[in-house]
Design goal:
about 130 residues; alpha/beta; Transcription Regulator spoIIAA; two-stranded parallel ribbon; about 30% strand
Length: about 130
Amino acid sequence: MSLSKLSYVTLKSGAFEVCPEGYLLVRMSDYAVVDLEEAKEREKVFLTLCKDNPMPFVVITKSKLIEYTDEAREYMANNSRMDEIRLAEAFVSTNIGVQLFIENYLKKNPNKCPSKIFKDKEEAIEWVKQFIK
């Protein structure tokens, strides 16, 4: 099946799904490590699933560790195509270490879209709904 016909894709770093309400749900894998190659695959999935239609993202992690290589972080933070399709980003985690990692990432790489960290998935979804076109 063609990737362009899918609404759900799984990579080693997580699962990606376009939800009927109009946001992209990202479920990070446990102990995900995202290198440059994985970052490029993720970008391809984001662009394909969004079909070039901007939408908010809800990123959920239950893991105690998320790791992005410097190259992957730089690539994702400065990729202009991602900026075109990401309207807002809600991060969901109950782990203080992961929350601090996300806060640090957002400070080092300020997004061109609204971003917020949540402990509750439903609150995150309610927040992103205001950005759905």
